[in-house]
Amino acid sequence: MVPEDPEVRGGEGSKMDIDIKSKDENQIVLIIEGVEVPFVNAIRRICMVEVPTIAVEDVEIYKNESRLFDEVLSHRLGLIPLKTDLESITPREECDCEGHCPRCSVSLILKEKGPKVVYSGDLVSQDPEVVPVYDTVPIMKLREGEEVELEAIAQLGIGLEHAKWQPTTTSAYSHYPLIIIDTEKCELCGKCAEECPRGVLEFDDKKNKVLVVDPENCTMCKTCMKDCEATAITVEGQEDKFIFKIETDGSMSPEDVISTACDILAGKSDKIIEFCEGGS
Ligand SMILES: [Zn+2]
């Protein structure tokens, strides 16, 4: 049976609200309201393991006189975050070449001689847009006279295949806390505000009541509930309101990760629509 209330039914009548709680270069925290867990969770998972990024996939080592095994060196290179421009590079599976070519890959050359510590900033990229996010990731230490010479080939991939292609370091949501204080039961002891480890509650002497001053900082540890002898406080998560946090490794901006994830989800939905309408 279809619910009569348009907000319950979803579709055009449903109301979804998004607010930015905080934002910087690598991190964004959103308050999303009017959606359900499966939807938020789908976006979270796609952000984490289906949004493509660039990482080193193949390494051709011409010379390695360091104490690092070739395999360890290649693994380290794979984990260096690289700035990703999804427009300029073709995914491997969509490229006609066998292996790699300039359409689907970017070469980064490393040629150094000791004594020195080799950092990610020493990699010379053939594409000025695809460079290490940070220049200060240590790769190896070369002793006097030791040399290393290699070509690292970076390609697009997704986190489902290998964690080095995950653009996010954090992709998580939590229910928005709902803190209710029953003023009739409250004995105004102020213990809850004292014990809250996150400074969510405050006892206001002037108004002589407990105030919820920072609900978004609540982790729902329920310390306040346990400490309230009068059982005047209840803390629970709102069913349709979420705090959604994305933090990236710097390869892409958090906004780009979310919008690409939504495009991927929309693409999947389009396929279902095409199928249902009998298209190919
Ligand atoms: Zn290719």
What do these coordinates show?
The protein has 280 residues and is of the alpha+beta class. It has 2 domains: 19-50 and 170-245, Gyrase A, domain 2 (2-Layer Sandwich), CATH 3.30.1360.10; 53-165, RNA Polymerase Alpha Subunit, Chain A, domain 2. The protein is 21% helix and 34% strand. It has helices at residues 6-9, 37-49, 70-78, 191-195, 223-227, 254-276; strands at 17-23, 27-33, 53-64, 105-113, 116-119, 124-125, 138-142, 147-157, 168-181, 201-204, 209-212, 233-248. The strands form 4 sheets. The chain has a 4-stranded antiparallel beta sheet. The protein is elongated. Bound molecules: zinc ion. Zinc ion binds at residues 95, 97, 100-101, 103-104.
Distance, first to last CA = 31 Å
Spatial shape? elongated
* Strand order, sheet with most strands: 1-2-12-9
Average residue pLDDT: 91
What fraction, in percent, of the residue positions are helical?
10-25%
What is the CATH top level name of the largest domain?
A: Mainly Beta
